[in-house]
Amino acid sequence: MATPSASSSPSSRAVIARPAPRPNTAFRQLRGPLSPGEFAAAVRRAARDIGEQVSCDARYIGRVESGEIRCPNYAYERVFRHMFPDRSLADMGFAPREKVRGRAARARGPAASGAVPPPRTGPETTTHEESDVLRRAFMTGGPAALAAGSLGLGSPRPPRRAGESEAAAVEEAVRRIRVLDDRHGADGLYRRAAQPLRAAYELLDAGSQRQSTADRLHAGAGELAISVGWLAHDSGRFADARSHYGEALATARVAGDAALEAHAFCNTAFLARDAGRPREAVRAAQAAARAARPLKSPRLMSLLALREAGGWAGLGDRRGCEEALLRAHSLFARGSSDQDPEWMSFYGEAELEGLEAQCWSALGQWRRAADHARRAAALQDPHFARNTALFTAELAGNLARVGEYEEAAAAGLRVLDLDQVQSSRIHAILDTAAGLLRPHRGSPPVGVFLERHAVPV
What we know:
Low-confidence stretches: 1-18, 101-156
Strand content: under 5%
Structural class: mainly alpha
Mean pLDDT: 80
Number of helices: 23
Radius of gyration: 23 Å
Helix content: 55-70%
């Protein structure tokens, strides 16, 4: 006789029900006055110090502090022990690993097969957040491997119902793509990232028994669409980017997700500016601000004001641009908060300076643009190698336009040194700088840059 499933019996559901997570107050104390995003950046820096790779962000910190993540995986454990060498995992508020993973989970050995185990119920349920299996799947096989192995779509049929593990895998795909883009740019990622996106929307079609899981899947799929759209945007595929951002916006509207809607409009504004549609950029940025108001995040509103400023600059409206820049600085000065969306981990003082530099450049104020681009490159967290290359390439072009040819060439060489970054957008900016410098190739520093850039002389 078949054994009844957990869902068929009220008594069985009562036996396997997982207790509500208990907040990790000890870990919250370790964060101190830092916002979740700032603390996540500190975790990433500590990981680099010991040669580890983690894609920590504000959401991960929030899930640890809420108690949803009862014990970190081994990579995070090494990083946390490096950050707090005088504390054990228990001192940090974590449960013993054997109580979280469970004897049965270890015996099954999912890592041996490289596949994520199916969702389980019972006391030994494991947290899939940043699991070692997901991490290996992504770092060794790229986004395509994550789609097949981590989203449960390695077989021709998607799961009948999506569960918590699938929702976590979609969220993990977003984080991994963002981390790789931060370090390497979009060119090598875009085509491969399309497969996890398709898998995520197949999971949405499969449906979920729990509304909370469905909400996570909608948010995760929408964020994944934005991430893939950004890869298209940064690699010069504007039509593809517009389609992906539209898909994210539709997902946000269906789910009633204001945060996702604000993010989709934010990126649409950025794309419109780059695609030569500045009035659309202004309107999309204003729409993003309307959607974002209930979120109570000054930093998000600051970024959206910068997106609007970029549109006004593209229209040649200096007054409108300056008013938006003033709002952006005023909102930024209010500081970060727990309400800041997790995708905004890139938005700090460096990004503020860099986006303002782009505004002044669009208005033809090259010297002012160079000053802001220089500060942006100097302030940038090394984790964001792509943005360091972007702001430095823009600095090279701005300096070339004001006659600072040798400093422009030095900036161009610094971009070339960041050879791990592959972004068509950055390459195009550097090509423009090289063209401006070509008439001055008699200067030795300029000549060295042009030779390395492979510009005919």
